[in-house]
Task: structure prediction
Amino acid sequence: MHSKSKQKGKGIYGMRPPIHLVSATSESRAHTLPPQTDFSQAEPKRLNQHLVRIRFMLIALVVGYLMGRAVILDSLTPFALAGYAVSLNLRKGTSVWVGTGLLLGSISAMSAGANPLLLLAMLVSYRLLIYFFTRVDRIDVHAIPFLVFAVDAGFRIGFVLPTPHLTLYTVGMAVVDGILSFLLTLMFLQLPPLLSSARVQKQWQTDEVIGMVILLASLMTGLKGVSIHGISLEGVFARYLVVVFAAVGGAGIAGTVGIVTGVILSLGALTMSPLIGILGFAGVLAGMLREGKRFLIGIGFLVGSAILALYSSHPASAQQSLILSAIAVALFYITPKRMFEALARVTPGTTNHTLRQQEHVRRIKSMMTKRIEEVATVFSELGASFSSAVETPYRTQDVTDHAIEFTKSEICASCRRFERCWKREEEHTAADFKAALHQLTVDEELTLQNVPKELYSRCIKLERLLPALQRAEISSTREHTLLRQVRESRKLVASQLAGVGVIMRDLASEIEREEGASRKQESQIMAALAKLGLEVQGIDIVSLEEGKVEIEILEMHPSGHNECGKLVAPLLSEVLGETITVKKAEPSPDGSYQVVTLASAKRFQVSSGFASAAKDGTLQSGDFFNVVDVGNGRYALALSDGMGNGERAHSESSAAVTIVQQLLKAGFDESLAIKTVNSALLLRSDQEMYATLDLAVIDLYTAQTEFLKVGSVPSYIKQGKFVSALHGHSLPIGILSQIEVQTERIPLSEGDMVVFMSDGILEAVSHLQDPDHWIARQLERFDSDDPQIIADLLLESSVRAAGGLIKDDMTILCAKIETFKPEWATIHLPDLPTIRNRKGRARAKTPEPPRQLVQV
Result:
């Protein structure tokens, strides 16, 4: 009843809204009257809509007619109710025309075994069931196949129930028809969204292609008995369907389409005809010639169908089959090319399908890059706004001037000598106040005994003035300190925001980088692997930049013998002119395939060792260290000594090391990472907490090492028998809001060793005349080049020098630079193509003796 109120142009209860006549001037009419409809544009648009509806109606009618004629096994019609149920679920208006076509087709196929009365009863009953269920509640789409099965099997059994034809065979056939209707409904329910405009961009899966073929074969079954001058339309269109899919999808899809189509058509003929073999073999042969032109595909299909037709049929049947195949190939030749291109874009396994997927990936990458760049711009602009705010000077008085002004307004303003002191003798009075404030910094309190003589003789309200001046000085100092901290915090936030912006821009550039460097280069790698007898399913070149090579290989059914590490990586090393190793291998959950990532090998690697002892032999040390690969060919060593000992010190040192390494992994600059950790330690607690930090970031391509020291004891570099010390003079992190990060970049080479230690080692030998020299002499004396042995020997020597006492936490971290040696030698093959010019990476310079660190 109330549905009419929702119609366009109607009032609330289906009535037109009342029209009110209002007088208006000629000027107001121009603003109040609605714009006139342009009928010259509206009429063609409305006409096109009518034409689309008529075309859609005719298609629904034809599809229903063919499904109504489709009869298999002489009496089964499972396509009819399944098609009607899907059309009713899709659109009620469509189901009317589909149902009409079904009844007309069933009437025309009565001689073939169709039963129009049975079909009419099933359609009406199913429509009533759907109407009843939708009145009670919204019907679930998963229940539709079960309703189709119940109606189909139930009415078939009911129609023969009062007749003598009720036998076990008829009941079994009724159940079989219901099961087929159930399966067809499940399959057809996937097809409407597949064909709608909303799924144009979606590529078909193989099972969806088979479902479409079953639908088309079902419609072809309805063409049984329809011929023109003795030419069976059913046979022509079946062969045409196979040759089209041979051109689009290749041998695999064409063979499958041929077999499925042949089986369905054979069920309608009640005999297992040779059509199954003809369509399957001819489809495979034609699909194998897909890479050739359309002419070769047609020839291949004709040859394949002729071979089996002559072998399995009588001469007359073979001649008829060849004629049908020739007509189908002729139709294939005159089919527009754009139809094949449109079908190839959604069919898996085709070049167009692959290009479409790549284009889709490129669009997603472009969108992601744009969004990330926008967010990076936001962070950069936020950082710039904080920086500009920092550059603007604060309009505040100096601490002394502010204290004088405060005292002047509070005490002196109401004094009778104000005119004399602050008008006629202002300079002398201000000088006396400054002298008093200076005396306050010396004695920490102003009294009548230590107040300057000039102020004592000038002021008549010293008892009130001195406490007020002292309060003003304390207040001004606090305000100045707070403003300074805010300024420093803004500087840190500005640098952090700018750092995040840089990291996100780098991420955007990484995403924007073209995944497939070149199809030609991928083909060259595939050809090189083929020479070794290696077959891989796919190669994706992420980057061929020297030192940053990254190639992904899809390997089906991996054997577990590491062929990529033993054969593929050495071969790529020869082809690319640099050492390539397996970076990672990601197998699928079921083990059917794996994706192997091969990347440039670093020229250097780091081996490390450590030794540690807690104070007084306890279990918990306040020191914390870690060695980790932070990405981009960088390796980080970090050692931190927390304030004091025990759990609290360990918490501070571990927080410092962990946060720094996580920030380095994220791409932050080393100095900015340390400043961020400093702010984190300041904000973690209102109690005094600090930690020292030694950090070394090693470039694994050049061995260039950047050292950063914050409040730590000297570190050492051992180069053979030569040992040098690195000193730093900054305060530990967590004490001041603004710290000075000391850094120096030093070139290292193979065999060089970096030694970090906590202050417990230095304290153990503090009774010696020169502890630094003693440690350096010990390192020179050790003959081993094993970092673990060096750490153990140095700790043992320090404990012995301290008389066996451990007065503080003692930790030693050693790291040695080693040349990376690939596990397998390169594979040289004659006539092997070189993908890019071989340019050796610049070797590390001869190491120079380290210098004392300078402040930055």
Notes: DSSP finds 28 helices and 16 strands in the chain. The CA atoms of residues 125 and 690 lie 83 Å apart. The first strand starts at residue 227 and ends at 228. The radius of gyration is 44 Å.
